[in-house]
Amino acid sequence: MLVRERSSRRITEWFRDAVLDRPKLQTLRKLKAKVEGREY
Hints:
Shape: rod-shaped
Helix content: over 70%
Largest sheet: none
Structural class: mainly alpha
Distance between the termini: 52 Å
Radius of gyration: 17 Å
Number of strands: 0
Low-confidence stretches: none
Order of helices and strands: H
Number of helices: 1
Strand content: under 5%
């Protein structure tokens, strides 16, 4: 039981981090593209 709870909690934290970090990464990528050469 404890092992399963720990692993599921870890998966939940990883999933939450991935969902929260993805928009930031996309925004940073867009900003970097604008600054570098305005290729868009």
